Amino acid sequence: DFMQACWDIEEVQAKGIRHLASFVKDKSAFPCLLKCTEVIALAMKTHMSSLELQAEGCTLLLEILRQALEQGMMMALDESVASCLLHTVRKHSENEEFLAMLCTLLMMVSASEVAAENLRKVGIIPDLLSILRRFLRNDKICFSCCAVLWSLAVSENNADQAVLEGAVPVTCAVLQEHLLNGVVAESACSALWALSLRGCLTDSDYEPTAALLLDALRMNPERAVLVKNGCLALASLVRLSETAALAILLDSKGSGTELIKDEYHLHFEDQGVTEALCLLMNEMLQYDNIMRDMRSHKMEKLLSEIKLQFPFS
């Protein structure tokens, strides 16, 4: 109440945020802190020029969200909070260290479908793409922004189709830059999967994107989630174009069919990975030329193994 009564006094807002932050370790205070997110966000928006207040407010929101997720709660932050966060992003778009924290906050917020939709409504996507282009080498920013893009792209709302199409080259650039960083590559593969499902790729994207996804699988073979989402993205591309299927087949770094076999044997107990591999094979088999190649690689034997491993799936 005191913060709301003194919106224009920066010192009041800063002290209020610090005082609220002193309660984060008190589990009994958590339900009350949940009700303060809008007040904190509005304080940040009102006093945008104070980087210290921005950082303290962002840290407090992160802690509240972290506790909420630990308790299995999804915080559906409303459109006014989403708008406040967007204003903060724009005001401090050059501050790499602060943006890394802010993008982590956006990623946690976007875990809620309602909050993700509110971020979409206020127009966050162009800002995310701009941040990725500017800080392509920052792994924390790339990881968080790709995760937010995934959340926004899986939405059924088609209002941002054109702007999401612009996300494809940026996401590919992130994956290319961070191929050896499993965490970031996993996030980028997930974003590419969602973008391919939305039909955001053009004919000229299929071959290079398929080759890039294969590189991600080769360089991070033991990361089950990356393998699963990478295969789902490839399956989506192959469904759309034989060019993508041929890119897998004729990849200059080795046969994609052999890579499928290697990944299955590495993750043969993981049903999610195996289902994604089966979906990819199923999409590839719609093309006669591909089918012949898969037979020459004895893929029927692999399918028999899978049937024995998962007889009830």
Automatic annotation (TrEMBL):
It catalyses: L-seryl-[protein] + ATP = O-phospho-L-seryl-[protein] + ADP + H(+); L-threonyl-[protein] + ATP = O-phospho-L-threonyl-[protein] + ADP + H(+). Keywords: ATP-binding, Kinase, Nucleotide-binding, Serine/threonine-protein kinase, Transferase. Signal peptide: none annotated. It comes from Pardalotus punctatus (spotted pardalote). Its EC number is 2.7.11.1. GO terms for molecular function: ATP binding; protein serine/threonine kinase activity. The keyword Kinase applies. It is an enzyme of class 2 (transferase). The gene is Stkld1_1. The keyword ATP-binding applies. Pfam families: TPR_CCP1_N (PF25571). This is non-specific serine/threonine protein kinase. SMART domains: ARM. Gene3D superfamilies: Leucine-rich Repeat Variant.
